[in-house]
Design goal:
- The chain has 183 residues and is of the alpha+beta class.
- It has 6 helices and 7 strands; from the N terminus they run E-H-H-H-E-E-E-H-H-E-H-E-E.
- The relative contact order is 0.15.
- The structure holds coenzyme A.
- Coenzyme A is lined by residues 31, 35, 102-104, 109-115, 137, 141, 143-144, 146-147, 150.
Length: 183
């Protein structure tokens, strides 16, 4: 791991290959648990990992979304996942797109890898062609919100959920990409 810490600049990003799904699922579970596990009820965390970070989840998602992985010395250290908008409250059109997941290995956060993944996703022709790009983020996730705001995302709504039995909310954020087409 110390070698990996010598520089985020050596990261390269490529499309996830099916044989890499177990490695990605492990990283996805770890980064999610590190980021949010302490806030969550253990049963909810377990269920969430099974539903959204497991090998079967990524097997299904490869067909319905694009998953790009950042690699350092052959090891997956982050990923971004994007595709059709799956946030019902967004009221999106079929041409709109969603950044569904953006995660970086906990030990390597804050070194520009998240920005590299985001740059790549937003430059994908499928995404540049979208009138609007949506994402959903916990309203207490100030680091991620700052990152998204730096790309022009703004809050367009909220969704409520329960976090360890207490009310919590996600922000729905949107980036309008073709202002001349809006309205
Ligand atoms: C959010 C995340 C993907 C960003 O990736 P990263 O590699 O750590 O971020 P970068 O080093 O590319 O930083 C990009 C920007 O993010 C913002 N940022 C990231 N972490 C931050 C923090 N802890 N506090 C404030 N801003 C932060 C800054 O605006 C930073 O801007 P800069 O490039 O001008 O410094 C990563 O920190 C992560 O995986 N976090 C845990 C999981 C998570 O929250 N995912 C998003 C769920 S919606």
């Amino acid at each position: 791991m110390s070698e990996a810490k010598t520089g985020a600049n050596s990261v390269h990003i490529e499309r996830l290959r099916p044989e890499e799904i177990p490695e990605l699922a492990e990283l996805a579970a770890k980064t999610f648990s590190d980021a949010f596990g302490q806030e969550m009820d253990p049963d909810d965390l377990k269920r969430s990992l099974e539903e959204n970070r497991s090998i079967p989840y990524f097997e299904r998602s490869m067909d319905t979304s694009k998953i790009m992985v950042a690699k350092q010395q052959g090891k997956i250290v982050g990923y971004v996942q994007y595709g059709s908008v799956l946030i019902p409250e967004a009221n999106a059109s079929p041409e709109d797109r969603e950044i569904g997941r953006l995660y970086v290995d906990t030990d390597l956060q804050g070194r520009g890898i998240g920005r590299q993944l985001m740059d790549l996703a937003l430059a994908d022709p499928e995404v540049t062609a979208a009138p609007n790009v949506f994402l959903q983020v916990w309203d207490q996730n100030h680091g991620a919100i700052a990152l998204y705001e730096s790309y022009g995302f703004e809050t367009s709504g909220v969704t409520q959920f329960e976090l360890a039995g207490k009310p919590a909310q996600d922000l729905i954020m949107v980036r309008h990409q073709h202002p001349e087409n809006v309205g």
